[in-house]
Design a protein that fits this description.
2 domains; 6-stranded parallel sheet; 9 helices; Rossmann fold; two-stranded parallel sheet; globular
Amino acid sequence: MSVGFAARAVLIDLDGTLVDSLPDIACAVNAMLADLGHSALTVERIATYVGKGIDVLVHRALTGTMDDAAAVPLFERARQSFYQHYGAVNGNESRVFAEVREALEDLRSKQLKLACVTNKPREFTFQLLHKTDLRGAFNFIVSGDDIQQKKPHPEPMLHASKLLGVAAVDAIAIGDSENDVLSAQAAGCRVIVVETGYNEGRSLSELNADAIVPSLLDAARLIKLQTD
């Protein structure tokens, strides 16, 4: 583990990093599948499908694969169903991970600028942050439909850095998956991975992150304000 990082801003992922949102996501996925006459999936299987946004999640749930695409008419019906069901349950069973609030307070006390950077659509992002009482911790929120490209593309990190008024090289990202690592590194940010999330079912040891730590609080304690 690194001895520490100096930064001007911190860009933090939502699902799997701040909040365990899997119970509500799985509920909506299985309600969608039931609407279409498909069999339910285990929560563990759905966890491996999370990470690249709702459209990819829906395709994966329909096809049972990581990369195949469902037929357009089926996908459109499924996507509409998922939005309806997820809007009804988002935040109901989701839980803020242990010590997340302490981590955010630690970062804010160091005068670091904070952004939440997620692939989740804006309507669901704000709904979840409101229900978990986390919205006020962030200077800005960057959701999946605020920009053209989602993580692992660098655009979310670059956009968040611009909103915060810092160069990407002076920001550090915190996430739970390869998507966060690839997005951050392509943007020029350093990146810390927490062990609380999903990472599409793959081992975190495969990731070329600057540090891998158990929790957001452990990540926060590695970061200090860059003053020069």
